Amino acid sequence: MPSTTSGRGIVLVAGNRDTFDRTLTAIKLLRHMHHCQLSIEVWHLSDEQPSEHMRQELESLGATPRDLSDPQLVRPIIHRRNADKQFQIKAAAVINSAFKEVLYLDSDNVPAHDPTFLFDTAEYKATGALFWPDFWKTHGENKIFDVLDIPCEDEWEQESGQMVIDKEKSWVPLQLAWYMQKHYEIYFQFLNGDKDTFKYAWKALDMPYHMTEAFVGMAGTMVNNRFCGHTMLQYAPGSDQDDDTILFVHANLLKITDRKHFIHGDQPEHPWDLAKRSSMSHANTWIKPEFYVSTQGQACMDFTHRQGEPDAITEDFDSVLPDFQTNYFKYGGIGGETRS
């Protein structure tokens, strides 16, 4: 690890105008609502420079735009993949960051509270890496287990929209994650993009990490008397099962949903009506999420409830996260997709 690397900070990645706008909103919420003082870097490819206005806004908030093509970087990226999504930049951004300890965030992932405390949690200090679960499990016959010579275990995949990494402790597995992302034509045959390259890199090298106990929650609305989740909710590590604290609001499906579904009459856009989580979400691997298309054509998430299983807990979103939704749009948040 370069000797110039020091301190703690937040790393985000942005590219087109949409992702820069989402990143700007997340940073405004961090600064103005959560009063977070962590330094921030926003990484981009050489052909996706922020506009001068965007650059000035970021810098006014104490966020530094960084170009991944700089040849002085440890892991520069000169050429982009021939694909819409540039999954390979995530590990490179973390590695190249000036920070020794990094909270990485996707551009569509907004903290619900000041996340600074994560660097001082017992789980992070013990391992040097905090990860969060995803809805999926890797199939037992997936060849990734043979390729990396690791056992198949009954566990959730990783959702890498947020990660906390101590680069000094985790420098070697970070390089393996970068290698797997760089050689995506091989590893992405087995993995769904970049997200599990981190967990599997740590596993392949037998390095410790902590997977947050609470299973993924969902935020969304009711559509024809059925819950339609369009946003992933991730929780604070070590939280009590009866009182899980929402820490990240990751609008993974919201951004591809027509915003007309969230506007009623002359009221402002309101995409988050409900928050839903399993009532037995800790250390369980039998929870079954379901993805479906609503009668109105929306992509939705929900929990499949089978006989004998505990009910999910559904709560009013604005009661669980007071002022979050109001401030999100106050600071320029993008809700659903604007379609003609």
UniProtKB/TrEMBL annotation:
<dbReference type="GO" id="GO:0046354">
    <property type="term" value="P:mannan biosynthetic process"/>
</dbReference>
<dbReference type="GO" id="GO:0000139">
    <property type="term" value="C:Golgi membrane"/>
</dbReference>
<keyword id="KW-0333">Golgi apparatus</keyword>
<keyword id="KW-0328">Glycosyltransferase</keyword>
<keyword id="KW-0735">Signal-anchor</keyword>
<protein>
    <submittedName>
        <fullName>Mannosyltransferase putative-domain-containing protein</fullName>
    </submittedName>
</protein>
<keyword id="KW-0808">Transferase</keyword>
<dbReference type="InterPro" id="IPR029044">
    <property type="entry name" value="Nucleotide-diphossugar_trans"/>
</dbReference>
<comment type="similarity">
    <text>Belongs to the MNN1/MNT family.</text>
</comment>
<keyword id="KW-0472">Membrane</keyword>
<dbReference type="InterPro" id="IPR022751">
    <property type="entry name" value="Alpha_mannosyltransferase"/>
</dbReference>
<dbReference type="GO" id="GO:0000026">
    <property type="term" value="F:alpha-1,2-mannosyltransferase activity"/>
</dbReference>
<dbReference type="Pfam" id="PF11051">
    <property type="entry name" value="Mannosyl_trans3"/>
</dbReference>
<keyword id="KW-0812">Transmembrane</keyword>
<keyword id="KW-1133">Transmembrane helix</keyword>
